[in-house]
Write a structure and sequence with these properties.
alpha/beta; single chain; THDP-binding; Transketolase-like_Pyr-bd; Rossmann fold; 2 domains; 5-stranded mixed β-sheet; globular; 12 strands
């Protein structure tokens, strides 16, 4: 089955063919996906080696010359390790790039804590001006990557994952989509969490919104949903729990509301396990979500 990362390699290679402004910058990881593209575009396919600070610095330099760099490696090495360069080379210099990560929160548990990054989006939230896309399907990853590359010189983060939904939805790089309507609360399912959320909320009288662009946060969509479904809001994110609670709270600042942030817990799990075992341990499988969402929105949320 094709993964989001498989699709990324294909689409980024096509973008090199289609747009002379595009450059792809790697740090060893992912190079095999660009073997043919490197032969066609040796001047715009740059592998800096295992030097993640240089990875981001090189992207900033390319941006200053008018290029549109796509930068790729594991999330832990793309956001966390070179964070000073993300903050200064891109942020302080006001230069744009498209950062595309792999690995997500714990896609490769055998890699251990060094290859896990549940805090990547929260860390970017400390900076100004970032767009954050979290696709839930390879088709959505392609749409959002193309949107990011076309977005002028903006700073964009595209978070890829092995987790995926069964079917894509028509995402547009801006809006939340209404997937299910109810009257007893709103559940915002982020990216690859949608299918699990729909299973977990089956029979609950809640509205389900689907979010693949988290920054900027779609305030208007959340407000519209709460007008009909009430202001109990649950956010289900595939990264650090509570990452978007501030954004949801600000969206509803003028009305009484409650917000529950569900996601990856802060406690480090020190056994490798599998991806599914990590999801269950953090309560992000369908039974865990149903228990917590049901308790939050109350018994009255069960539809007839």
């Amino acid at each position: 089955m094709e993964t989001m990362r498989d699709r990324f390699g294909t689409v980024a290679s096509r973008l090199l063919d289609e747009d002379p402004r595009v450059a792809v910058v790697l740090a060893e990881i992912g190079r095999d996906a660009f073997t043919d593209a490197a032969r066609r575009h040796p001047d715009r396919l740059i592998n800096v080696g295992i030097r993640e600070q240089l990875l981001v610095g090189t992207a900033a330099g390319l941006s200053l010359t008018g290029m549109r760099p796509i930068v790729h490696t594991f999330a832990a090495f793309l956001v966390e390790r070179p964070f000073e360069q993300v903050k200064l080379d891109l942020g302080h210099q006001d230069t744009g790039a498209v950062l595309v990560s792999a690995g997500a929160s714990f896609d490769w548990p055998a890699g251990g804590q060094t290859h896990m990054s549940p805090g990547d989006v929260a860390l970017l939230d400390t900076l100004d001006g970032w767009t954050v896309h979290v696709p839930g399907h390879p088709d959505e990853a392609e749409t959002l990557l193309r949107h990011a590359v076309a977005a002028g010189d903006d700073k964009v983060y595209v978070r890829l994952s092995l987790q995926r939904n069964r079917l894509p939805l028509p995402v547009d790089g801006a809006r939340f989509l209404t997937v299910r309507e109810g009257r007893a609360g709103v559940v915002v399912a982020v990216g690859p969490m949608l299918d699990t959320v729909l299973t977990a909320t089956e029979g609950l009288d809640v509205t389900v919104l689907y979010a693949t662009t988290l920054r900027p946060f779609d305030t208007a969509a959340l407000r519209r949903a709460t007008e009909a479904a009430g202001t109990d809001v649950v956010l289900v994110e595939p990264y650090l729990a509570g990452t978007s609670t501030r954004a949801a709270t600000e969206a509803l600042a003028d009305v009484p509301h409650r917000v529950l942030g569900l996601g990856v817990g802060r406690r480090e799990l020190r056994r490798y396990g599998t991806l599914d075992e990590h999801l269950a341990a953090h309560g992000l499988d369908a039974p865990g979500l149903r228990e917590r969402i049901g308790a939050f929105v109350g018994a009255g949320a069960v539809s007839a």
